[in-house]
Write a structure and sequence with these properties.
Length: 543
């Protein structure tokens, strides 16, 4: 189909398919020279065709959908003018978009009674030539629908990329509004709850239209506030309103994310054309971005408390002295932290680029993990998540949808963040090895570790692994990490290699070197258990 063909959503609609359903304008089929269709009766304005099918029954209406193009060779067409009239009237009542009448094998030409009835009841009638099989008409229609859908998806993808790039600019709010205005071909404005413009872009409509948008805004904002007065303890839901005014299609949308005590911001749009499915999708992305950009702490942004903590750190204070400034103001004393390590594992790259350059994904990560303290380095992530009274663990299924694999530490105090960092790194390696979206480090309150004094256990662990100090390349630390990973994965060579990103033979060689230096038989389960317990008591390993 010609790329310049108009989008289906821009055509006048008679009996149209359901909103959002794939459809093709009747004019596209008439313009296809391979079909040879000819319009011979009924209105000439365009119709949207949603389905195409052959029905050779006396009463086809029960088998038709709105927007259906009925193909028939007239096998059961009534033989009287009254019968043909009733036939067409029932087809129109079922919401059909058109009738395609095939020449041969029953009729040599379209019956004049059918032509008259279609003119009378306002139903387009198309002559299907003898050499065009009905299946070719259906194939052409569905091919055109698929191409139109792909064109819409490309438009949405291009707009999303442009909006995401705009959100990363220093003048992000103005840039996002500009891109939205370009892709909607409309005037766009960000306004407060009174309708006062904060930013705007695009061809400005007349003063009366702008005033009507303000009135629509104040009316929209007043509705949730009236609901709040009822005492219901719930956040304000996102809402929108639309109206046609002096040649403009007006829409207003409140930005989600504000609580009941704060008046919301509003996105206002004035367009000369009615919104399409593509426009609605693009507007939805812009609403999310504008909501994030206008929130107190969007994406990696911070507030005065966290900025003050950064200043204190840079001036030499210890992390434990400033950690409380990074916690929510209502967090109880002694609140702990969870360290998160992540790896971007999506097989196909994001449509908007690499994770660290995608503000939408960045904001989604921060929102899902419940923290603004994120560090992205390529496809790797580290995060600090405040753990306090009302915090809830994030569901693994939710995290998995983001295309990332995560390892979570156990909750730790500010003085033990280095230990938690090791826990998160190992949890991530285990998650990658076993193919889980999330692995959390667990601490057992009751275990055999409580039977040995910590100082004695640490001294024993040091002595047990002292022979590894004799190792040259790759060194004692690397051998210990390989042993720890191998034991945690129950001696699986393949999973160990995957977790450490090694060749399988390299993992085997390292474990063999450990067994040689420690003079132990690692096939003995008692030996494995002893080493696992000893590993847990090495400096920096306590849980």
């Amino acid at each position: 189909m010609d790329e310049s063909a108009p989008s289906p959503a821009t055509h006048p609609v008679g009996h149209a398919p359901a909103p959002g359903a794939p459809a093709v304008p009747l004019s596209v089929l008439l313009a296809d020279p391979s079909l040879g269709l000819r319009h011979i009766a009924g209105p000439t304005e365009d119709r949207l065709v949603g389905t195409v099918g052959t029905t050779e029954v006396e009463e086809p209406a029960p088998y038709l959908l709105s927007g259906h193009m009925l193909l028939t060779a007239g096998v059961r067409l009534p033989q009287t003018p009254e019968g043909v009239d009733s036939y067409v009237r029932s087809v129109v009542g079922a919401g059909a978009a058109a009738i395609g009448f095939g020449i041969a094998p029953v009729y040599d030409e379209v019956p004049p009674e059918l032509v008259a009835a279609c003119d009378r009841h306002g139903l387009p009638l198309l002559r299907v030539p003898r050499e065009t099989p009905f299946v070719a008409v259906g194939r052409a229609a569905y091919s055109a629908m698929a191409e139109a859908r792909n064109r819409d998806l490309r438009q949405i993808s291009d707009a999303q990329s442009a909006l995401a790039a705009a959100a990363g600019r220093p003048d992000a709010l103005r840039a996002v509004l500009h891109q939205l205005s370009v892709h909607l071909d409309a005037w766009t404005a960000l306004a407060d709850a009174t309708g006062r413009e904060l930013f705007a872009d695009g061809p400005r409509p007349a003063a009366a239209t702008v005033q009507r948008l303000r009135e629509l805004t104040t009316h929209l904002v007043a509705q949730p506030q009236a609901a709040d007065a009822s005492g219901a303890d719930r956040p304000r839901p996102p809402s929108s309103a639309a109206e046609h005014h002096t040649g403009f299609h007006l829409t207003v949308h409140t930005l989600p994310g504000t609580d009941r005590s704060t008046a919301p911001l509003v996105l206002a749009v004035a367009a000369t054309k009615p919104p399409t499915a593509v426009h609605r999708s693009v507007t939805g992305v812009a609403i999310v971005l504008l909501s994030l950009l206008t929130s107190p702490r969007h994406a990696l942004g911070g507030d005065a408390r966290s900025a003050g903590a950064l200043v204190r750190l840079m001036l030499g204070e210890a992390p434990r002295a400033v950690a409380s400034a990074l916690l929510p103001p209502d967090a109880p004393p002694g609140s702990s932290w969870v360290v998160v390590h992540g790896r971007y594992t999506e097989s196909t790259p994001s449509a908007m680029g690499r994770p660290e350059s995608d503000p939408v994904q960045l904001a989604a990560l921060g929102t899902t993990l419940g923290t603004a303290y994120l560090q992205l380095d390529g496809a790797s992530l580290r995060a600090l998540v405040p753990e306090h009274g009302d915090s809830r663990p994030t569901e693994a299924t939710t995290l998995g949808r983001l295309g990332w694999t995560f390892g979570f530490s156990a909750p730790a105090s500010a003085t033990d963040l280095a230990v938690a960092d090791n826990q998160a790194a190992r949890a991530l390696r285990r998650a990658l090895a076993v193919g889980l979206p999330v692995v959390r480090h667990r601490v057992q309150d009751q275990s055999v570790h409580g039977l040995v004094a910590p100082a004695d256990a640490e001294a024993l662990a040091r002595a047990r692994f002292a022979p590894l100090a004799q190792a040259r390349t790759p060194g004692a630390d690397v051998l210990l990490e390989t042993l720890r990973t191998w034991l945690s994965l129950h001696g699986s060579w393949d999973r160990t290699a995957a977790a450490l990103q090694l060749h399988r033979n390299t993992a085997r060689q390292r474990i063999g070197r450990v067994a040689e230096l420690l003079d132990v038989d690692l096939q003995d389960q008692d030996v494995r258990m002893e080493l696992w317990f000893a590993l847990r008591w090495l400096p920096g390993e306590r849980t």
